């Protein structure tokens, strides 16, 4: 009745009639098989597969674009921001020294 048990596993009962035969199960599997083999379901599966493929490609290309934009920002923009900050600090230091020495600052009259 039960299939041979494997070590550490659970044994399940053998299927007596894999075709369905007579009984309540036959009508249910017939309807399910007719629905699953219908052209509408096949078209839906194909559409879902196509949508998944397009989504995968879109995410892959978006990731590549994000990588390119991120590395470009790090290479070009971050050093520019650092240099502008350094220049601003240098200007502030010059203004502070000029005010301490009592000389007019460059650009002030």
UniProtKB/TrEMBL annotation:
Keyword Membrane: yes
InterPro entries recorded: Tom22_pln
Keywords: Membrane, Transmembrane, Transmembrane helix
Region (Disordered): 1-29
Record bears the keyword Transmembrane helix: yes
Transmembrane segments: 65-82
Protein name: Mitochondrial import receptor subunit TOM9-2
Native species: Eucalyptus globulus
Lineage of source species: Eukaryota, Viridiplantae, Streptophyta, Embryophyta, Tracheophyta
């Amino acid at each position: 009745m039960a299939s041979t048990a494997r070590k550490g596993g659970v044994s399940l009962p053998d299927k007596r009639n894999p075709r369905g035969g007579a009984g309540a199960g036959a009508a249910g599997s017939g309807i399910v098989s007719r629905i699953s083999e219908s052209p509408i379901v096949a078209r839906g599966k194909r559409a879902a597969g196509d949508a998944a493929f397009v989504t995968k490609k879109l995410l892959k290309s978006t990731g590549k674009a994000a990588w390119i934009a991120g590395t470009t920002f790090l290479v070009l923009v971050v050093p520019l921001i650092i240099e502008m900050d350094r220049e601003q600090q240098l200007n502030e230091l010059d203004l502070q020294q000029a005010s301490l020495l009592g000389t007019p600052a460059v650009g002030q009259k």
